[in-house]
Write a structure and sequence with these properties.
single chain, Rossmann fold, five-stranded mixed beta barrel, 8 helices, 9 strands, 23% strand, binds hypoxanthine
């Protein structure tokens, strides 16, 4: 066994403030929009102007990713005239963090005054109409790990952020979805719409898993985003979620899914995702 201890603690206001303080010391900016970049999607952060870069390992309590394709950097600057804080890479539940810990970055940006959060991920298509390289606007999610008891909101409620029992009927902001659809239409980008389902991973799904996921209404499957969207919505952020389809789900058991495939698809997705997100930021 390595020395990695499973993290089971709940977040406190003190540690959220401590992490926010370190970020404030490194950049005087007051970001209004947060962006979390998923597997292989980090290069979008290269477009940020006047960038201050902070290694996440320097921020106390911040969950650091151990996965290829996740750099572990916070980039603060300007994109399309908006003051942004970009998280280049994210940590996942399968890496050993508690759900609460995965919510820390969102709590910190809420504390810093961010009002809008754009979540991105790489996902497998469960909807047979979607292909690798496509973009999907997340209209809603299925929180399968949450249903199994693993919610980032478990534990003492942080009343200063939101209520004990948050409504989740409009987790993904309708005005932001409408804006993203308009930007896509105006730029000639195809933007599917669908339901994202979050599994714990790290194993990809079996064909039987995938038939089950399709049956319960999922269009795309991944191992992230839902914990962050849940914490963001609890704290009153407007959330936009976009999946980059990296692979076709293996419903018939005839193909193999690999992380390399996910990263390679990211290279096709990044230019489209960059155009979409720049368009949305420019019209916010
Ligand atoms: N399944 C789960 N997570 C993923 C996939 C997938 O097929 N592709 C990218 N992330």
């Amino acid at each position: 066994m390595s020395g990695f201890a499973e993290d089971t603690g709940f977040l406190t206001i003190d540690e959220i403030e401590a992490a926010a303080r370190v970020i404030r010391q490194r950049s005087p900016a007051r970001p209004r929009v947060g962006l979390i970049l998923g597997s292989g999607l980090g290069p979008l952060a290269d477009h940020v102007e006047d960038a201050a870069r902070i290694a996440v390992k320097d921020v106390p309590g911040w969950p650091t990713s151990t996965v290829d394709g996740h750099v572990g950097e916070i980039v603060i600057g300007k994109l399309e005239g908006q003051s942004v804080i970009v998280m280049r890479g994210r940590a996942h539940y399968y890496e050993g963090y508690s759900m609460s810990r995965l919510g820390l970055p969102v709590r910190v940006i809420q504390h810093l005054g961010v009002k809008t959060l754009i979540l991105t991920n790489a996902a497998g298509s469960v909807n047979p109409e979607f292909n690798p390289g496509d973009l999907m606007l997340i209209t809603d999610h299925l929180n399968l790990i949450g249903m199994a008891g693993l919610s980032p909101l478990r534990g003492p409620n942080l009343d200063s952020f939101g209520p004990r029992f948050p409504d989740m009927s409009q987790t993904y902001s309708r005005p932001l979805r409408d804006l993203a659809l308009k930007v896509a239409a105006d730029s000639g980008l195809t933007l599917h719409q669908g339901v994202y389902i979050c599994l714990a991973g790290p194993s990809f799904e079996t064909p039987a898993d995938l038939r089950f996921l399709r049956g319960i209404g999922a269009d795309a499957v991944g191992m992230s985003t839902v914990p962050e969207a849940t914490v963001a919505h609890h704290g009153g952020l407007d959330v936009l979620g976009i999946s980059g389809i990296s692979n076709k789900a293996n419903l018939d058991g005839n193909t193999v899914t690999t992380h390399e495939e996910v990263l390679a698809a990211g290279r096709v997705i990044v230019p489209k995702l960059t155009a979409l997100i720049r368009g949305v930021l420019g019209r916010l």
